[in-house]
Design goal:
The protein is an alpha+beta fold and about 425 residues long. Helix content is about 40%, strand content about 15%. The protein is built from 19 helices and eleven strands. β4 and β5 form a beta hairpin.
Amino acid sequence: MMRKLISAVGVAAMMVSVAACGSDGGSGESAKNPKDRKEDLTVWLMSDAQSTWPELVKDVNAEFNKKYPGVKVNVQYQQWGDKAKKLDAALAGDKFPDVVELGNTETMTYILNGALGEIDPSKYENSGTWIQGLKDTCTFEGKQYCVPYYAGARVALYNKDMFKAGTGSDALPTTEAELTAALDKVQQKYGKDKAFSPLYLPGRYWYAAMSYVAAYGGEIATYDEGKKEWKSALSTPEAQKGIKHFVDLVNKYNHGDKTKDEQDHANVMANEKAGLLYGNGWEAGSVVDSKANGNPKLEGKIGVAGMPGPDGKALPSFIGGSDLATVSKSKVQDLGEEWIAMFTNSKSQEVLASKNILPNNTKQLEPLKAKPETAPIANAVPDAWFTPIAPGWTAVEKSEVLELMLLDIIKGTSVEEATKKADAEIDKLINEKS
């Protein structure tokens, strides 16, 4: 649930200097007849849309132009690696998008600095059933500043042939006790290769580590309603137990470089150096995709399943995904809102669901829980966890506090000492408004 944050920052600085976005002029909202609108609408989407659902972008633009034939929609595709830097630079100048896609851990920073326009949820289809973990990332002080676009969750990705050879079954066990027993057998089968890991779990993989924290009832940070501030909670017994469990798995089953993060773990599996990964569902495709340095020979051999966690329960997943927002300085926010409404309606979400991408609402998510390709991911959403929706969370991520804490533990620092140090670092940052 969305916790009430500390009082909103002054947004005047972001709102004072208004320059035309994407549009050199035009009558704006003064033109009551849609056919009289002559502006440009600039939309920043991530490259996922360009590579995986380009027909959706094309169809929505065509539908939009039926209503607004004089409005030119300029869709510009961005890369995750440098999008935030480019957006910050654009917002500081006079050439910025009208609509922007944001990862759901990014939204609060832009909400608090006044960069995003407020939206009325009633104007958007399925707003009553938006996935809560996405909706929360768009909400501040009871107001909505972005629209959920799609969701994602982490699951187990495994080499079915390796598990079959090691255990006699190509199905992933459903409990962690059974899983570790299976991993031991897979290790016996393939362990002559010293670079092989039955479970490739990188030591700096903080999303995975925090999933184990959540499994034991711990949290990264908690919000104090009385003091109106966030407080890091990694030193609590529950969080420490989860972190220790994660590190124990890394040390026992990862025979690769334990000091790395998860960025190349799909490539490790593609090179047949891993039996099991914990990753995003779409990474199963990366393992076999030659364009992504994958191994086409593994086509049909990579299974997707729910990741077993401690105490006989499924491992809670981080809920990832994207949101869409209008830029507050835009002179065509109304057009941006309509474009987003078309791009996120039921018809559009159905296109995403057909590609095994999780939709933004529970109504359309439900059928995917029974579909073999999407069931593990879809079923992970209801119990998923999310990072603290705090003003300084982006600063915490940029400082890599969690990664450095895990690295210290992997190198021999005690969990108690490392979490205490991380708590102090997080407390310095988490309440700061950027």
